[in-house]
Amino acid sequence: MTNDSKKQTLFEKIWNDHLVNASDGSNQSQVPDILYIDLHLIHEVTSPQAFSGLRDRGLVVRRPDRTVATVDHAIPTRSSKNGRLEFADALCRKQIAQLEDNARQFGIKAFGHEDHQNGIVHVVGPELGFTHPGMTIVCGDSHTSTHGAFGALAFGIGTSEVEHVLATQCLLQYKPRTFEVRIEGKRNPGVTAKDIILSLMNRIGVNGGTGYVIEYRGSVIRDLSMEERMTICNMSIEAGARAGMIAPDETTFSYLAGKPYTPKGEQWEKAMQNWRNLSSDDGAVFDRSVTVDISDLEPMITFGTNPGMGIPVTGRIPDPDDSVDINQKNALKKSLEYMGLNAGEKISGHPIDAVFIGSCTNGRISDLRAAASILRNRKIADGVRVLVVPGSQQVKREAEAEGLDQVFINAGAEWREPGCSMCIAMNGDQIETGQYAVSTSNRNFEGRQGKGGRTFLASPLTAAASAIAGCVTDVRMYMEA
Ligand SMILES: CC(C)[C@H](C(=O)O)[C@@H](O)C(=O)O
Ligand code: SF4
């Protein structure tokens, strides 16, 4: 089937609108296109070498006004006795100091370690209104796909590309293919956006999206809040996709209205006129399409060492011997060994040592509210360490204004300063070898939350319920009928 040239997908509209130079136009072209980048987000881990490169070549940042930096990965989440943040080690301190120095030297807006608006880059961008529909957005971070929830084309880049974008505000890219994922049906109680994306991951696999930009569509997506949409788009990269996106609608516009960095007055009206055209045309053709009905979906949890290894929380650990594919069989076997789990056993009831509630997947205010709804007036099981880490300073302030911090503290959890924290364990927040954590983050790779640590990925609801029970738990047991 050939695509009617007038009918375009959302992805094609944004791509074409940002072409500085087009190659021969085919998906398999050997020559990359050159794209203009509207917003370049920066954090401390992937930017130091890029700035050194600029310095070595005597270059400046082409558009400092389109570049925004924040600190997140290395930032400590605990204050020492004198109230200052306590860096885990010299490297963390250095990374943060370098980011702040580079931003100062190159004239870039930065939310440094003492700034009241800092936080995880993918939480800060949307909440302050830097992220707009129709933009091309890049960051030296794979979960940049989060921003696609606004109908932007947003993806992660490597450090040498960070340098390139800093210097030119452009990027060389091969055009990805388009993948339509329709989510339909009725959402059951206890089923969150996280469960939807974990079940999709399980269905299409960690390479299912490779080479594609996914556009999420369908009635379930339309009914999701912006924060839920961000959770879905955030994990697109875990399915191998270049990006994930959702066409903007009234939900998007009302989220963005009045944010500090969104257009105001006449400019807002003008922007809205453009944004309203940002959807895939009726009859536009995608390279691949999948429709998922979530009417039977239950809360999900991962048991293995990639995010595609998920099962319903009521399910049993799969048996590697049931896999026909030898690679899959071996991967499963290796995962179960690392995780210390046995084929056929029930996942619910498995003891845990820690719970992490936070990250750019599930560290927003609605995630904290969800966790608090389960933890309110309850106590965390003895011996389970629970870290609640808001995704940004703003999320922290909002949570405290609602008294959520007290709900967490009364339940026995640690209420921390914002940052990536135990999602990646770069800042010293980690679990010990052999320990099990239920985590609301997006990656369960070997050692992700600390050397030898084992991660079960789940929603904030499931994480909170598991914290109370001291083991992997079906949150529906704790929900009002
Ligand atoms: C440190 C950074 C490069 C990395 C990423 O690209 O995603 C991190 O954010 C992660 O989640 O693994
Ligand atoms: S919260 Fe986790 S996934 Fe998100 S940017 Fe930080 S380390 Fe990466």
UniProtKB/TrEMBL annotation:
Cofactor remark from the record: Binds 1 [4Fe-4S] cluster per subunit.
Enzyme Commission no: 4.2.1.33
Database matches in PROSITE patterns: ACONITASE_1 (PS00450), ACONITASE_2 (PS01244)
UniProt cross-references to Gene3D superfamilies, sorted A to Z: Aconitase, domain 3
Domain Aconitase/3-isopropylmalate dehydratase large subunit alpha/beta/alpha: residue ranges: 12-470
Biological process according to GO: L-leucine biosynthetic process
Signal peptide stretch: none
EC top class named in words: lyase
Annotated [4Fe-4S] cluster binding sites: 360, 420, 423
Any one GO molecular-function label of the UniProt entry: metal ion binding
Cofactor(s), by name: [4Fe-4S] cluster
Keyword Ribosomal protein: no
Pfam families named in the record: Aconitase
Record text on subunit structure and interactions: Heterodimer of LeuC and LeuD.
Identification of the protein by name: 3-isopropylmalate dehydratase large subunit
Originating species: Flexilinea flocculi
Highest classification ranks of the organism: Bacteria, Bacillati, Chloroflexota, Anaerolineae, Anaerolineales
Encoding gene, per UniProt annotation: leuC
